[in-house]
Amino acid sequence: SDDTMTKTNLLCIVLFAALLELLANNKKVTASEFSTSTSIMNHNNHILRSSSSRPIIRVVFSDIDGTLVHYPSSTSEETDKEEENTNDLRLPQSSTGMRGIISETTIQLCQQLRQRNVKFVLVSGMRTTTLFQRLPYLPFADAYCSENGGRIFYPELLNNDANGMAIQEKGYYDSNLSYIFTPATVTASTHMEENPVERRCYRLQEDSMWRKQQNIQELWEFASFLRNQNWVLDDKGYETCFRIHQKDNPQQDITKILDLLPEALVATTNLGCLDVYPKSSGKKHVCQYLVNHKFAEGTLADNCIFLCDDDNDIELASSCRFAFLPSISSNSMEQYQENHFDKIIAANSISTETKLGTTKATETILQF
Across the strands, what pairs with 17? Predict the structure, then answer.
């Protein structure tokens, strides 16, 4: 329902607001302080009085769909008109006709994380071409990981001569086939003209060393084997992963793929589909690589937080200090959270007397 949609967006903002206050005051926290939205609010005064020598959280990893981006249940004209009066950004329509929504407040909170010297990384199972198309609507990040961690991209600031074209076109490929974009921290700003220094655009540079570590030869040999067995695969826009939709294979159970996997490959569910990719890939491995080789910012277990929702997030969620679930998209994640509630925190309920827009809700939360 639309009420559920509002609450899901609100819960995401609750988590970010709590993170920001904790990081701003360098407070080491326990899982119990995050167990419910009520405890977050009740502990704020104590948190604000506490400090230590340096922040305990140094990297925040975040999934995209179901975590930062949500999908309303209604696509009616009435709903569209209501959304025009909020601070939500509507992403481009997907190939299935769905249009995700992300709150400008969520984007701003992500930006504040980076302003406090906390690394912010988007890590998703989506195909790389889809990620590129969404970049003008997503928070700016220190790294972008697509295809379940098979590919890593870093933003490189361009000089002033390229800025005008990128802002006008929002996203395009240059002559070297590198993607140029302006992040949503700029696109969504209502004060863009007042702050021309923020009108910046970036070129994405892929991590070639990480890419070479992926065993894609065996991946595509397995894909050929499945096609010969009359499976229908979705590999458009992928290079280190492919996806299998149940709707494209109505006469077969896609979970049977798990029994056919070669030793070097793994498969996880993502948004009700099955993603197949090399064992050397995966969200945990790519984030461990970033922490160890690029950021040099502690360890996953001690210094990292993950915002997530689905089956393909479980391995990374179990490896980070805490994982936060604004929503839960799979039965496996729901069961895992119930068995590890002290570390995997599901913000699945919040008390509000009225249906609050995300801006108003955030303002209310940040008063504590």
Answer: none
Report, in this order, helix, strand and coil percent for the chain, each rounded to 5.
45, 20, 40
Encoded tokens for 332: 């496996």
* Phi/psi-derived region of residue 174, left when phi > 0, alpha when psi is between -120 and 50, beta in every other case: beta
Question: 3-class DSSP state for residue 121?
Answer: strand
Distances in Å between the Cα of 306 and the Cα atoms of 59, 81, 122, 154, 313 are 9, 33, 10, 19, 9
The secondary element (H helix, E strand) that includes residue 181 is strand 179-181
Instruction: Using a cut of 0.70, tell me whether the model's pTM lies above it.
Output: yes
Neighbouring CB atoms inside 10 A of 249's CB total 18
Dist CA 254 CA 247 (whole Å): 10
Assign 320 to helix, strand or coil.
coil
Residue type, 157: L
Segment 318-361, tens digit of pLDDT: 999 888 887 777 788 888 888 988 888 776 543 333 333 332 33
- Tell me: the pLDDT tens digits for 234-251? 999 999 999 999 999 999
Query: Phi first, then psi: what are they for 122, rounded to 5°?
Result: -95, 125
Burial zone of 28 (CB within 10 Å; 0-12 exposed, 13-18 middle, 19+ buried): exposed
Whether residue 29 is predicted with pLDDT greater than 80 in this model: the reply is no
Give dist(CA 336, CA 329) in Å, integer: 12
Is 22's pLDDT higher than 70? no
CB-based contact 216:247 (threshold 8 Å): no
Q: Containing H/E element for 18?
A: helix 2-24
Look at residues 170, 168, 167, 172 and name the one whose alpha carbon lies nearest to residue 198: 167
Q: At what angle do helices 37-48 and 2-24 cross, to 10 degrees?
A: 20
> Where is pLDDT greater, at 23 or 130?
130
* pLDDT, the chain, mean: 75
Query: Measuring CA to CA, how many Å separate 55 from each of 37, 50, 123, 269?
Result: 22, 12, 22, 34
**289, HSE (Cβ side, Cα atoms, 13 Å):** 22
